[in-house]
Amino acid sequence: MSMSAATGALRLEELGSERLSARDKGIPARAFGLTVDEFLASEPRLSEFWTPLVALDNDAIENNLRVMAQWSASHGLELMPHGKTTMAPALWQRQLDAGSLGITLATMGQVRTARTFGLNSIMLANAVVHDRSLRYLAAELADPEFRFVSWADSVATIDEMERALRAAGTPRPVDVCVELGAEGGRTGARTIAEAVEVAERAAASDVVRLAGVAGYEGSLAHDRTEASLDAVRAYLRRQVELHESLGALYDGEGEIYVTAGGSAYFDVVAEVYADAMAADEGTLWTLRSGAYITHDDGFYRRVSPLDEGGSQGAGSLASGRFRSGMRGIARVVSHPERGLALLDGGKRDFPFDEGLPVPRQSAAHLGDEWSALEGASILAMNDQHSYLGLGEQDVALGSVVALGLSHPCTTFDKWHYLPVVASQDDDRVVDLVRTFF
């Protein structure tokens, strides 16, 4: 299936009919009792929302969707973006509309959520070994339109799947990719020989079908030093070697995947896969990058090959560059000593696992013109406070600060609704993104 193949529309109608209340962090009081659709029809402004807040930028999201779709297609790669980044069905739909083959998820609980919205093309970047999950999966596979593939990194995984799937009476075999790992990495068979054993076991099963090779290179490196890139390349070459060694085990009847690619090294995936892709056009060579949809101002800005700063190489850039599509907004609530201000947002509101937020701008009030905030930094964070270290500039009590954020995956999970503004310079709220963590 090609990048442009239709994947169907998710059932999103109910999201617009949900009623807003004081239980929804940051939502303005006048929205209480209104449905999401009614509130959006009233043309709200970001200045109405309470701080702390995380706002998304629709213009940047549209740019990032286009850039990733065009870049992937130009390199002959399919895209099944990791939906656990946002757990937002409305954003998944936008990724599908941009040409993605499906959505990747991380747990069977996430799969269950996705299925309630009608998502019919899912890769589970994990193993399924629990009876309850496998019974649920067997029931879902009665839907002939449901494409599902999971991973396995041991013979024991296949044994567990077989036992539960036979007991459940699965209507068709479950597609499984053999996960290849690496020493010091995350999950995955540690050697090609071990991975081949898993593949042989899957190929011999009547309720599991061998469907390719999978893995995650992102756990092997966290920067773009030559040593890190060499480690990623070496791992990806082993993936290709494993796939080529499994040719006789594939049944020739269903889809075969080779998949890697977080949001940091997808250019290296394209580089290493290129020759094998040219010789094997029948395989779905698939990226799972997910964080690109909003990008960020921290970790991915430093490592992404398509960051708007242009510091990383990514081959042809006719598709453009990613822009940060999320920002935190917090209010100055204390000025206890010279050079220090305390903000009303902390770890419960903003990500901190891949770097602290970066102060970018300040304004007297939300809705006022922003001014650059030079020389400031976030020194530390508590649950509900961030310590803003000030340079030569000062910020008044009650003023607001815009924060660049690092790591979308631990931004979205802190918010039930995230307002989407038209653009960085236009604070009209054009959508409320609902998450399901």
Characterize the structure shown.
- This protein starts with 12 loop residues before the first helix and ends with a strand.
- It is globular.
- The chain is 28% helix and 22% strand.
- Strands 1, 10, 11, 12, 13, 14, 15, 16, 17 and 18 form a ten-stranded mixed beta sheet that branches.
- It has 437 residues and is α/β, with parallel strands linked by helices.
- It has a domain at 59-296: Alpha-Beta Barrel (TIM Barrel).
- It is built from eleven helices and 18 strands.
- It has helices spanning 13-17, 36-41, 58-74, 89-97, 108-116, 131-140, 155-168, 192-203, 226-245, 266-279, 299-303, and strands spanning 53-57, 78-79, 103-105, 121-124, 147-152, 174-179, 208-214, 257-260, 284-287, 326-337, 340-343, 358-363, 371-372, 377-381, 386-389, 400-404, 417-423, 426-434.
Q: What's the number of helices?
A: 11
- What's the CATH first level of the domain at 59-296? Alpha Beta
Structure class = alpha/beta
Main beta-sheet strand count, sense and barrel state? 10 strands, mixed
Average pLDDT, all residues? 95
CATH topology of the domain at 59-296: TIM Barrel
Question: Which spans of ≥5 residues are poorly predicted at pLDDT below 50?
Answer: 1-6
Basic shape: globular
Q: How many extended strands? A: 18
Distance between the termini: 30 Å
Q: Beta-strand percentage?
A: 15-25%
Q: What's the CATH H-level homologous superfamily of the domain at 59-296? A: Alanine racemase
Radius of gyration: 23 Å
Order of helices and strands: HHEHEHEHEHEHEHEHEHEHEEEEEEEEE
CATH architecture of the domain at 59-296: Alpha-Beta Barrel
Assembly status? single chain
**Into which percent range does the helicity of residues fall?**
25-40%
Protein name: D-serine dehydratase-like domain-containing protein
Domain D-serine dehydratase-like: 325-422
Pfam families: D-ser_dehydrat
